[in-house]
Amino acid sequence: MSFLKKLEPFALVLLRCGLAVVFMYHGYPKLFGSTERFVESFQAIGLPPSVVYVAGAIEVFGGMALALGLLTPVVGLLLVLDMAGRKECACITNALRGCSAIRARWSRPTRRRRTVPPSPGLQRT
After folding, report:
1. Domain residue ranges in the chain
2. Do 95 and 45 contact (CB within 8 A), yes or no?
3. What is the distance in angstroms between the CA of the first residue and the CA of the last residue of the chain?
4. pLDDT tens digits for 23-55?
5. Measured between alpha carbons, how far is residue 65 from residues 13, 18, 23, 84 in Å?
6. Which of 51, 100, 113, 115 has the largest count of CB atoms under 10 Å?
7. Taking phi first (over 0 means left), then psi (-120 to 50 degrees means alpha), and beta for anything else, what does residue 49 get?
8. What is the pTM (predicted TM-score) of this model?
9. CA separation for the pair 89, 54 (Å, rounded)
10. How far apart are CA 37 and CA 31, in angstroms?
């Protein structure tokens, strides 16, 4: 057990750096990539276009700060609020639309039983 306790700081650094890479990877296109595509998708869930740039900045620069270990609790809170705010806005928008988009996307098709017509010799009378 003491061996695992020695590896705990290293594991936390790996986790923090991995999460930072994910946030930077998702924030970079919002600032420097196909911004107009993100503006359209944010407007579709009811957010103004300026939120794309704010979210991209929080994700890119917050990811860098997280990777470097600078102000980790503050940056972590900003990243959580960033993700929770967009998730909540998307849920409210879909709720106002009747959640048909969510239901259509996540509903699994029902399995239909394959019906085989009975053979002529085995019909019931």
Report:
1. 35-87
2. no
3. 74
4. 999 999 988 888 888 888 888 877 888 888 999
5. 13, 13, 11, 20
6. 51
7. alpha
8. 0.65
9. 15
10. 11
